[in-house]
Design goal:
With 331 residues, the protein is mainly α. The protein has a domain of 227 residues. Helix content is 72%, strand content 2%. The chain contains 15 helices and four strands. The strands form two sheets. It has a two-stranded antiparallel sheet with strand order 1-4. Strands 2-3 form a two-stranded antiparallel sheet. The longest helix is centred in the middle third of the chain and has 27 residues. It starts with a helix and ends in a 20-residue tail after the last helix.
Length: 331
């Protein structure tokens, strides 16, 4: 897919695909906290914005390398995620969702306007990374870098899911009382889930800042508002919060669907944005039938179909007829 994108698409569609790859990386944070741990977090966009603002501030004020600043921004977001998890330890379900939503709204209306958080009114310049002598200012090279980072983060998520911590998080999603009866601390597991999830979102936010080549309140309004964060979570849950393909499909769908409406079908930008959000919201209705997500449900359906065909191959080929056995000789 990436090779075809590099070979076929022009600069505009390269940017669209790159943005989808970056969002896929951010959506993996939903996979950790919602898919594995079963904790509804509606402030993932705020964590991504923290990583983006931290990256921009560090690069602008200290001259730090962009990639190093992205890692530091992810660490800042992880610390904030752990801090948010502490007062939410006794909350679950809708109450936890409301608490995280309240933080997202507070972040947007109280913290973002502060110069200490978002910087001066001007946009802070964030250059593309320079790694091993390779300048990723070129959009094609930057797409390859984003794809490699997505694969790296996806691999980390898979390692967590298949490890001891991931199994404990999955068990907590099914039954917190059951996990507690085994002597495991559900509070510690929640803090880990929020911290890891926030770190992934913050790292993706820093990558988004380098994609935009700047970061400030305008970029925040275009990418990280709390309403956009709500759509992120709904979309990932609809497609499959428990799997990596669900997050990747969600990230690409989020940007491609709107651009196809605008550029291919000629729908106005305002209407395309509204239609996208409405359809993504209506898609959440499928959660009642497929709580595992549309992508996982269709994957399981395909696997069952293939298994059924292998177990019962079609009777297309004619079967050989056994020759008539010779009659027994009479005595």
């Amino acid at each position: 897919f990436v090779v075809a994108t590099l070979a076929v698409f022009d600069e505009f569609w390269l940017r669209v695909i790159t943005q989808g790859i970056i969002l896929s990386l951010i959506f993996l944070s939903v996979t950790v906290v919602v898919g594995l741990a079963g904790q509804i977090s509606l402030c993932q966009a705020a964590f991504a914005a923290v990583g983006a603002f931290a990256t921009a501030q560090l690069v602008d004020k200290t001259g730090m390398s962009v990639l190093v600043a992205m890692v530091v921004g992810a660490a800042v977001a992880a610390a904030l995620g752990a801090l948010i998890a502490l007062p939410a330890l006794r909350l679950s379900g809708i109450y936890l969702a409301l608490a995280t939503l309240a933080f997202a709204v507070m972040f947007e209306n109280v913290l973002v306007p502060l110069e200490a958080v978002s910087g001066p009114t001007r946009q802070l310049k964030v250059p593309r990374p320079l790694l091993a002598g390779i300048d990723f200012a070129n959009n094609r090279a930057f797409l390859l870098l984003c794809t490699a980072l997505l694969a790296l983060v996806a691999g980390i998520v898979l390692l967590i899911r298949n490890g001891t911590t991931g199994r404990a998080l999955t068990a907590m999603r099914s039954s917190e009382l059951g996990v507690a009866s085994l002597g495991l601390s559900t509070g510690r597991l929640k803090v880990i889930a929020f911290a890891v999830s926030a770190a992934i979102a913050g790292f993706g936010g820093g990558l988004m800042a380098t994609f935009e080549r700047q970061m400030g309140r305008q970029v925040y309004q275009a990418n990280f508002t709390f309403f956009v964060g709500l759509v992120w979570v709904v979309l990932v849950i609809t497609l499959g919060a428990r799997t990596v393909p669900g997050a990747v499909t969600g990230g690409l769908s989020f940007v491609l669907f709107r651009q196809i409406l605008e550029k291919v079908l000629g729908v106005s930008a305002t209407l395309a944005g509204s239609v996208s959000f409405i359809l993504f919201g209506l898609g959440a209705l499928t959660y009642a039938k497929h709580p595992e997500g549309i992508v996982e449900a269709q994957t399981q359906r395909f696997v069952r179909l293939v298994s059924r065909r292998r177990a019962h191959p079609p009777d297309d080929a004619p079967t050989a007829v056994d020759p008539v056995a010779p009659a027994e000789a009479r005595p």
